[in-house]
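Q: Acyl-CoA dehydrogenase family protein, please. Structure only.
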Amino acid sequence: MDFAFSEEQAQWREVLRDFARRELAPKYAHWDKTGAFPRDLWQAMGRLGLTGLRVSPRYGGSGADCLTTGIAAEEIARGDFNAAYAVMLNSLLAEVLEPHASEAVKREWLAPMAAGERLIAIAITEPGAGSDVAHMAARAERVGTGYILTGEKSGISLASVADAFVVFAKTQPDAGARGVSAFLVPREAPGVSVHRYDDMGNVAIGRGSVFLERVEVPVDHRIGEENRAFYQLMRGFDLSRVLICLQCLGAAMQSLDETAAHVRRRRAFGRSLAQFQGVAFPLVEYHTQIEMIRWFSYRALWLRDRGLPHTKEASMCKWLGPQVAAQAIHECILLHGHYGYTKDLPLEQRLRDVIGLEIGDGTAQTQKIVIAREWLGKNYKPC
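A: Structure for Acyl-CoA dehydrogenase family protein:
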Protein backbone atom coordinates (compact mmCIF):
# COMPACT_ATOMS: atom_id res chain seq x y z
CA MET A 1 0.00 0.00 0.00
CA ASP A 2 1.33 3.42 -0.98
CA PHE A 3 -0.58 6.50 0.19
CA ALA A 4 1.87 9.01 -1.32
CA PHE A 5 1.11 11.28 -4.24
CA SER A 6 3.58 11.04 -7.09
CA GLU A 7 6.19 13.80 -7.36
CA GLU A 8 4.20 15.36 -10.22
CA GLN A 9 0.97 15.25 -8.22
CA ALA A 10 2.63 16.80 -5.17
CA GLN A 11 3.97 19.65 -7.33
CA TRP A 12 0.56 20.06 -9.00
CA ARG A 13 -1.01 20.36 -5.56
CA GLU A 14 1.39 23.13 -4.53
CA VAL A 15 0.85 25.03 -7.79
CA LEU A 16 -2.92 24.87 -7.33
CA ARG A 17 -2.80 25.86 -3.67
CA ASP A 18 -0.74 28.92 -4.55
CA PHE A 19 -3.10 29.78 -7.45
CA ALA A 20 -6.14 29.39 -5.19
CA ARG A 21 -4.63 31.62 -2.52
CA ARG A 22 -3.44 34.37 -4.87
CA GLU A 23 -6.01 34.41 -7.67
CA LEU A 24 -9.21 32.91 -6.29
CA ALA A 25 -9.60 33.64 -2.58
CA PRO A 26 -9.42 37.47 -2.83
CA LYS A 27 -12.54 37.63 -5.05
CA TYR A 28 -14.52 34.72 -3.61
CA ALA A 29 -16.92 37.06 -1.77
CA HIS A 30 -17.11 39.47 -4.73
CA TRP A 31 -18.86 36.96 -6.97
CA ASP A 32 -21.27 36.12 -4.16
CA LYS A 33 -22.20 39.77 -3.63
CA THR A 34 -22.54 40.74 -7.28
CA GLY A 35 -24.04 37.52 -8.59
CA ALA A 36 -21.86 37.88 -11.69
CA PHE A 37 -20.35 34.83 -13.34
CA PRO A 38 -16.52 34.99 -13.59
CA ARG A 39 -15.97 33.94 -17.22
CA ASP A 40 -12.47 35.41 -17.20
CA LEU A 41 -11.67 33.24 -14.19
CA TRP A 42 -12.88 30.08 -15.96
CA GLN A 43 -10.70 30.98 -18.93
CA ALA A 44 -7.73 31.46 -16.59
CA MET A 45 -8.43 28.03 -15.12
CA GLY A 46 -8.63 26.74 -18.68
CA ARG A 47 -5.12 28.02 -19.36
CA LEU A 48 -3.98 26.17 -16.26
CA GLY A 49 -5.62 22.98 -17.55
CA LEU A 50 -8.32 22.80 -14.87
CA THR A 51 -11.36 22.86 -17.15
CA GLY A 52 -10.13 20.00 -19.33
CA LEU A 53 -8.57 17.56 -16.89
CA ARG A 54 -10.68 14.57 -17.96
CA VAL A 55 -10.71 15.54 -21.65
CA SER A 56 -8.15 13.75 -23.80
CA PRO A 57 -5.37 15.71 -25.57
CA ARG A 58 -7.12 14.96 -28.88
CA TYR A 59 -9.81 17.47 -27.89
CA GLY A 60 -7.63 19.99 -26.09
CA GLY A 61 -7.56 18.48 -22.60
CA SER A 62 -4.81 16.91 -20.55
CA GLY A 63 -6.26 13.42 -20.06
CA ALA A 64 -5.42 13.51 -16.35
CA ASP A 65 -6.22 10.53 -14.17
CA CYS A 66 -9.00 10.71 -11.59
CA LEU A 67 -6.62 11.01 -8.63
CA THR A 68 -4.99 14.11 -10.14
CA THR A 69 -8.45 15.53 -10.86
CA GLY A 70 -9.42 15.01 -7.22
CA ILE A 71 -6.40 17.00 -6.07
CA ALA A 72 -7.58 19.88 -8.26
CA ALA A 73 -11.13 19.78 -6.88
CA GLU A 74 -9.85 19.90 -3.30
CA GLU A 75 -7.25 22.63 -3.77
CA ILE A 76 -9.32 24.99 -5.91
CA ALA A 77 -12.18 24.79 -3.39
CA ARG A 78 -9.82 26.08 -0.72
CA GLY A 79 -9.66 29.40 -2.56
CA ASP A 80 -13.10 29.61 -4.17
CA PHE A 81 -15.60 26.84 -3.59
CA ASN A 82 -17.64 27.74 -6.67
CA ALA A 83 -14.58 27.86 -8.95
CA ALA A 84 -14.14 24.14 -8.21
CA TYR A 85 -17.33 23.50 -10.20
CA ALA A 86 -15.09 24.01 -13.25
CA VAL A 87 -13.25 20.85 -12.24
CA MET A 88 -16.22 18.81 -11.08
CA LEU A 89 -18.82 19.66 -13.75
CA ASN A 90 -16.41 19.55 -16.69
CA SER A 91 -15.06 16.20 -15.52
CA LEU A 92 -18.57 14.79 -15.44
CA LEU A 93 -19.28 16.26 -18.89
CA ALA A 94 -16.08 14.76 -20.27
CA GLU A 95 -17.14 11.33 -18.98
CA VAL A 96 -20.48 11.69 -20.80
CA LEU A 97 -19.47 13.48 -24.01
CA GLU A 98 -16.12 12.08 -25.08
CA PRO A 99 -17.05 8.37 -25.17
CA HIS A 100 -20.58 8.88 -26.50
CA ALA A 101 -21.07 12.12 -28.46
CA SER A 102 -20.81 12.35 -32.24
CA GLU A 103 -17.58 13.60 -33.73
CA ALA A 104 -19.35 16.78 -34.87
CA VAL A 105 -20.46 17.60 -31.31
CA LYS A 106 -17.04 16.81 -29.84
CA ARG A 107 -15.28 19.03 -32.37
CA GLU A 108 -17.66 21.93 -31.80
CA TRP A 109 -18.05 21.77 -28.02
CA LEU A 110 -15.46 19.63 -26.25
CA ALA A 111 -12.30 21.60 -27.07
CA PRO A 112 -13.83 25.02 -26.18
CA MET A 113 -15.16 23.52 -22.94
CA ALA A 114 -11.71 22.16 -22.11
CA ALA A 115 -10.24 25.63 -22.71
CA GLY A 116 -12.74 27.28 -20.37
CA GLU A 117 -14.18 29.29 -23.26
CA ARG A 118 -17.58 27.61 -23.47
CA LEU A 119 -19.81 26.50 -20.63
CA ILE A 120 -21.98 23.39 -20.79
CA ALA A 121 -24.57 22.51 -18.15
CA ILE A 122 -26.09 19.11 -17.39
CA ALA A 123 -29.89 19.22 -17.34
CA ILE A 124 -31.29 16.17 -15.55
CA THR A 125 -33.37 17.17 -12.53
CA GLU A 126 -37.05 18.09 -12.94
CA PRO A 127 -39.70 19.53 -10.59
CA GLY A 128 -41.24 16.08 -10.20
CA ALA A 129 -38.19 13.91 -10.71
CA GLY A 130 -34.96 14.72 -8.88
CA SER A 131 -33.00 11.60 -8.08
CA ASP A 132 -35.78 9.54 -9.68
CA VAL A 133 -34.31 9.97 -13.15
CA ALA A 134 -36.22 6.98 -14.54
CA HIS A 135 -39.53 8.84 -14.10
CA MET A 136 -38.62 12.15 -15.72
CA ALA A 137 -41.34 13.93 -17.67
CA ALA A 138 -39.26 15.62 -20.40
CA ARG A 139 -39.83 14.04 -23.80
CA ALA A 140 -37.79 13.71 -26.99
CA GLU A 141 -39.84 12.73 -30.02
CA ARG A 142 -38.11 11.42 -33.15
CA VAL A 143 -39.25 13.47 -36.15
CA GLY A 144 -37.58 13.08 -39.52
CA THR A 145 -33.81 13.57 -39.19
CA GLY A 146 -33.90 14.83 -35.62
CA TYR A 147 -35.76 15.11 -32.35
CA ILE A 148 -38.21 17.57 -30.79
CA LEU A 149 -37.63 18.13 -27.05
CA THR A 150 -40.30 19.32 -24.63
CA GLY A 151 -40.14 19.69 -20.86
CA GLU A 152 -38.74 21.55 -17.87
CA LYS A 153 -35.45 21.00 -16.07
CA SER A 154 -34.92 22.47 -12.60
CA GLY A 155 -32.03 23.13 -10.24
CA ILE A 156 -29.52 23.24 -13.10
CA SER A 157 -26.05 24.54 -12.22
CA LEU A 158 -24.80 27.15 -14.73
CA ALA A 159 -28.32 27.41 -16.20
CA SER A 160 -28.18 31.20 -16.47
CA VAL A 161 -24.73 31.33 -18.10
CA ALA A 162 -24.30 28.07 -20.04
CA ASP A 163 -23.72 28.10 -23.80
CA ALA A 164 -25.32 24.67 -24.16
CA PHE A 165 -27.07 21.97 -22.16
CA VAL A 166 -26.78 18.20 -22.10
CA VAL A 167 -30.49 17.47 -21.73
CA PHE A 168 -31.80 14.10 -20.57
CA ALA A 169 -35.28 13.20 -21.83
CA LYS A 170 -37.49 10.18 -22.39
CA THR A 171 -37.44 8.69 -25.87
CA GLN A 172 -39.36 5.62 -24.71
CA PRO A 173 -41.71 6.93 -22.00
CA ASP A 174 -42.88 3.58 -20.62
CA ALA A 175 -39.44 1.97 -20.35
CA GLY A 176 -38.24 3.56 -17.10
CA ALA A 177 -34.46 3.96 -16.95
CA ARG A 178 -34.17 2.05 -20.22
CA GLY A 179 -36.01 4.81 -22.09
CA VAL A 180 -33.79 7.82 -21.34
CA SER A 181 -31.66 9.55 -23.99
CA ALA A 182 -29.36 12.59 -23.86
CA PHE A 183 -28.95 15.49 -26.29
CA LEU A 184 -26.61 18.44 -26.75
CA VAL A 185 -28.88 21.50 -26.95
CA PRO A 186 -27.32 24.91 -27.77
CA ARG A 187 -28.66 27.72 -25.62
CA GLU A 188 -29.63 29.80 -28.67
CA ALA A 189 -31.81 27.02 -30.11
CA PRO A 190 -35.37 28.28 -30.66
CA GLY A 191 -37.64 27.25 -27.81
CA VAL A 192 -34.99 27.29 -25.04
CA SER A 193 -35.56 29.69 -22.13
CA VAL A 194 -34.08 29.98 -18.64
CA HIS A 195 -35.24 31.28 -15.26
CA ARG A 196 -32.49 32.04 -12.76
CA TYR A 197 -32.94 31.26 -9.03
CA ASP A 198 -32.15 33.52 -6.11
CA ASP A 199 -30.20 30.89 -4.15
CA MET A 200 -28.84 31.19 -0.60
CA GLY A 201 -25.44 29.94 -1.79
CA ASN A 202 -23.45 29.04 -4.92
CA VAL A 203 -24.64 32.41 -6.26
CA ALA A 204 -22.01 32.73 -8.99
CA ILE A 205 -22.99 29.32 -10.39
CA GLY A 206 -26.31 30.78 -11.55
CA ARG A 207 -28.62 27.84 -10.92
CA GLY A 208 -32.02 27.91 -12.55
CA SER A 209 -34.71 26.16 -14.56
CA VAL A 210 -34.43 25.39 -18.26
CA PHE A 211 -37.62 25.28 -20.34
CA LEU A 212 -37.82 23.41 -23.63
CA GLU A 213 -40.72 24.33 -25.92
CA ARG A 214 -40.57 22.01 -28.94
CA VAL A 215 -36.83 22.45 -29.33
CA GLU A 216 -35.48 20.82 -32.50
CA VAL A 217 -32.08 19.11 -32.45
CA PRO A 218 -30.45 17.05 -35.22
CA VAL A 219 -29.88 13.36 -34.68
CA ASP A 220 -26.10 13.82 -34.43
CA HIS A 221 -26.72 15.88 -31.27
CA ARG A 222 -27.95 12.78 -29.48
CA ILE A 223 -25.30 11.66 -26.97
CA GLY A 224 -24.72 7.94 -27.38
CA GLU A 225 -27.30 5.31 -28.24
CA GLU A 226 -30.98 6.01 -27.94
CA ASN A 227 -32.44 4.91 -24.57
CA ARG A 228 -29.00 4.31 -23.03
CA ALA A 229 -28.24 7.69 -21.42
CA PHE A 230 -29.21 6.68 -17.89
CA TYR A 231 -26.37 4.17 -17.71
CA GLN A 232 -23.87 6.57 -19.29
CA LEU A 233 -24.81 9.12 -16.63
CA MET A 234 -24.55 6.77 -13.67
CA ARG A 235 -20.96 5.93 -14.50
CA GLY A 236 -20.13 9.62 -14.67
CA PHE A 237 -21.81 10.22 -11.31
CA ASP A 238 -19.39 7.78 -9.69
CA LEU A 239 -16.66 10.31 -10.47
CA SER A 240 -18.50 13.57 -9.81
CA ARG A 241 -19.74 12.39 -6.42
CA VAL A 242 -16.20 11.81 -5.19
CA LEU A 243 -15.06 15.15 -6.63
CA ILE A 244 -17.95 16.88 -4.83
CA CYS A 245 -16.80 15.29 -1.59
CA LEU A 246 -13.24 16.57 -2.05
CA GLN A 247 -14.53 19.98 -3.08
CA CYS A 248 -16.48 20.24 0.18
CA LEU A 249 -13.57 18.91 2.24
CA GLY A 250 -11.25 21.50 0.68
CA ALA A 251 -13.50 24.33 1.86
CA ALA A 252 -13.84 22.75 5.29
CA MET A 253 -10.11 22.17 5.72
CA GLN A 254 -9.34 25.76 4.73
CA SER A 255 -11.87 26.89 7.34
CA LEU A 256 -10.27 24.69 9.98
CA ASP A 257 -6.80 26.00 9.13
CA GLU A 258 -8.01 29.59 9.46
CA THR A 259 -9.78 28.83 12.72
CA ALA A 260 -6.74 27.06 14.16
CA ALA A 261 -4.67 30.16 13.44
CA HIS A 262 -7.36 32.34 15.04
CA VAL A 263 -7.59 30.37 18.29
CA ARG A 264 -3.81 30.35 18.63
CA ARG A 265 -3.75 34.16 18.45
CA ARG A 266 -6.92 34.96 20.41
CA ARG A 267 -6.55 35.15 24.17
CA ALA A 268 -9.10 34.88 26.97
CA PHE A 269 -8.66 34.53 30.72
CA GLY A 270 -4.92 34.95 30.28
CA ARG A 271 -4.47 32.07 27.85
CA SER A 272 -4.64 31.30 24.18
CA LEU A 273 -8.06 29.94 23.18
CA ALA A 274 -6.31 26.90 21.73
CA GLN A 275 -5.37 25.84 25.26
CA PHE A 276 -9.01 25.30 26.24
CA GLN A 277 -10.34 21.79 25.63
CA GLY A 278 -13.74 23.17 24.62
CA VAL A 279 -12.02 24.94 21.74
CA ALA A 280 -9.27 22.48 20.77
CA PHE A 281 -11.32 19.27 20.92
CA PRO A 282 -13.98 20.24 18.31
CA LEU A 283 -11.23 21.30 15.92
CA VAL A 284 -9.33 18.07 16.49
CA GLU A 285 -12.49 15.99 16.00
CA TYR A 286 -13.37 17.59 12.67
CA HIS A 287 -9.76 17.55 11.49
CA THR A 288 -9.71 13.80 12.17
CA GLN A 289 -13.01 13.13 10.41
CA ILE A 290 -12.05 15.17 7.37
CA GLU A 291 -8.69 13.41 7.05
CA MET A 292 -10.40 10.02 7.19
CA ILE A 293 -13.01 10.94 4.56
CA ARG A 294 -10.37 12.62 2.42
CA TRP A 295 -8.21 9.53 2.14
CA PHE A 296 -11.25 7.35 1.58
CA SER A 297 -12.13 9.67 -1.33
CA TYR A 298 -8.69 9.28 -2.86
CA ARG A 299 -9.00 5.52 -2.50
CA ALA A 300 -12.29 5.68 -4.46
CA LEU A 301 -10.50 7.60 -7.23
CA TRP A 302 -7.64 5.09 -7.11
CA LEU A 303 -10.20 2.32 -7.68
CA ARG A 304 -11.70 4.20 -10.63
CA ASP A 305 -8.32 4.76 -12.21
CA ARG A 306 -7.79 1.00 -12.12
CA GLY A 307 -11.20 0.14 -13.53
CA LEU A 308 -12.33 -1.46 -10.27
CA PRO A 309 -15.88 -1.22 -8.82
CA HIS A 310 -16.38 1.95 -6.78
CA THR A 311 -20.09 2.89 -6.96
CA LYS A 312 -20.59 2.10 -3.27
CA GLU A 313 -17.49 4.07 -2.29
CA ALA A 314 -18.55 7.07 -4.41
CA SER A 315 -21.92 7.24 -2.68
CA MET A 316 -20.27 6.90 0.74
CA CYS A 317 -18.11 9.92 -0.13
CA LYS A 318 -21.04 11.96 -1.44
CA TRP A 319 -23.18 11.24 1.62
CA LEU A 320 -20.59 11.84 4.32
CA GLY A 321 -18.22 14.45 2.89
CA PRO A 322 -20.61 17.41 2.39
CA GLN A 323 -22.38 16.65 5.68
CA VAL A 324 -19.20 16.66 7.78
CA ALA A 325 -17.83 19.67 5.86
CA ALA A 326 -20.94 21.71 6.66
CA GLN A 327 -20.75 20.72 10.34
CA ALA A 328 -17.06 21.60 10.52
CA ILE A 329 -17.54 25.04 8.95
CA HIS A 330 -20.45 25.73 11.29
CA GLU A 331 -18.18 24.93 14.24
CA CYS A 332 -15.53 27.29 12.84
CA ILE A 333 -18.10 30.09 12.73
CA LEU A 334 -18.91 29.52 16.41
CA LEU A 335 -15.25 29.43 17.41
CA HIS A 336 -14.72 32.83 15.80
CA GLY A 337 -17.41 34.28 18.06
CA HIS A 338 -19.49 37.17 16.74
CA TYR A 339 -16.83 37.91 14.07
CA GLY A 340 -17.55 34.52 12.53
CA TYR A 341 -21.18 35.54 12.04
CA THR A 342 -20.22 38.51 9.86
CA LYS A 343 -19.67 38.57 6.11
CA ASP A 344 -16.22 40.01 6.71
CA LEU A 345 -14.96 36.42 6.96
CA PRO A 346 -15.48 33.74 4.26
CA LEU A 347 -16.88 31.20 6.70
CA GLU A 348 -20.58 31.97 6.32
CA GLN A 349 -20.32 31.92 2.52
CA ARG A 350 -18.51 28.59 2.55
CA LEU A 351 -21.27 27.15 4.75
CA ARG A 352 -24.00 28.37 2.37
CA ASP A 353 -22.09 27.06 -0.63
CA VAL A 354 -21.32 23.63 0.82
CA ILE A 355 -24.97 23.07 1.79
CA GLY A 356 -25.86 23.30 -1.90
CA LEU A 357 -23.77 20.21 -2.60
CA GLU A 358 -25.44 18.27 0.19
CA ILE A 359 -28.28 18.29 -2.36
CA GLY A 360 -26.63 18.26 -5.80
CA ASP A 361 -25.85 14.92 -7.49
CA GLY A 362 -28.13 13.12 -5.05
CA THR A 363 -28.99 13.74 -1.41
CA ALA A 364 -27.64 11.73 1.52
CA GLN A 365 -30.82 9.63 1.48
CA THR A 366 -30.28 8.78 -2.19
CA GLN A 367 -26.66 7.81 -1.52
CA LYS A 368 -27.72 5.48 1.30
CA ILE A 369 -30.12 3.74 -1.07
CA VAL A 370 -27.25 3.22 -3.54
CA ILE A 371 -24.96 1.91 -0.78
CA ALA A 372 -27.63 -0.50 0.47
CA ARG A 373 -28.26 -1.76 -3.07
CA GLU A 374 -24.54 -2.29 -3.72
CA TRP A 375 -23.79 -3.84 -0.32
CA LEU A 376 -26.96 -5.75 0.64
CA GLY A 377 -28.17 -6.49 -2.86
CA LYS A 378 -30.92 -5.03 -5.05
CA ASN A 379 -33.63 -7.02 -3.28
CA TYR A 380 -32.77 -5.38 0.05
CA LYS A 381 -32.49 -1.72 -0.91
CA PRO A 382 -34.67 0.65 1.19
CA CYS A 383 -37.89 1.83 -0.42
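A: Brief note, in case it's useful. The chain has a mean pLDDT of 94.
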